[in-house]
Amino acid sequence: MRCPYCASLDNKVVDSRMGKEGESIRRRRECLKCGGRFTTYERVEEMLPSVIKKDGRREPFDRSKILGGIKKACEKRPISMELLEKTADEIEKALQEKGLKEVPSAAIGEEVMERLHLLDEVAYVRFASVYRSFKDINEFMSELKDILNNKEIALKKNGVNERNGKTEDTRKQAEKLTLPLDT
After folding, report:
1. What is the chain's percent helix, strand, coil content, to nearest 5?
2. How far apart are CA 65 and CA 11, in angstroms?
3. Do the Cβ atoms of 24 and 41 come closer than 8 Å?
4. pLDDT tens digits, residue range 145-160?
5. How far apart are the C-alpha atoms of 16 and 1, rounded to whole Å?
6. pLDDT of 55-111, one tens digit each?
7. How far apart are CA 95 and CA 89, in angstroms?
8. What are the two backbone dihedrals, phi and then psi, of residue 115, each rounded to the nearest 5 degrees?
9. Which end of the chain is less crowded, N or C, counting CB atoms within 10 A of the terminal residue's CB?
10. Do strands 58-60 and 102-104 pair parallel, antiparallel, or not at all (unpaired)?
11. Which residues pair with 159 in a beta bridge?
12. What is the model's pTM?
């Protein structure tokens, strides 16, 4: 392992520990040249499918792209990094369990959106706005209306409004989102 400080390959393992849920090993290393300490993680290399991009290109699955998209969508939201990592792990695991050799990028994007919808509505809308490439504001507003309508259904099941503890028709909120462009 190359030292991140001096690029030397001479180092020793000072400490090894089992990572979260036993799926990785955390190793604390010390460079024998500069004395710098750094941490590495070892994971089992699992067979992941190739991703078929929209233009037909194929590239290896890259978990960091999933995590990067999730992080960007959840920026400045009250969601822990641990939860973001767990979400990326769940998406990766779901892909592995399907046992496919190739998977369309659209299927991965839909999986990310589904997880974000459960995790945080704002993050979901952020991701969807980029992923779905809305053609205009009306498509975007339509997506927001769907979210509000789904929320209304969930609230009615519980009989509670999220804001003030009273039942309130969120369809009225959705109707307020209609823009003059709808004519």
Report:
1. 50, 15, 35
2. 30
3. yes
4. 887 787 777 777 766 5
5. 15
6. 999 999 999 999 999 999 999 999 999 999 999 999 998 888 888 899 999 899 989
7. 10
8. -65, -40
9. C
10. unpaired
11. none
12. 0.57
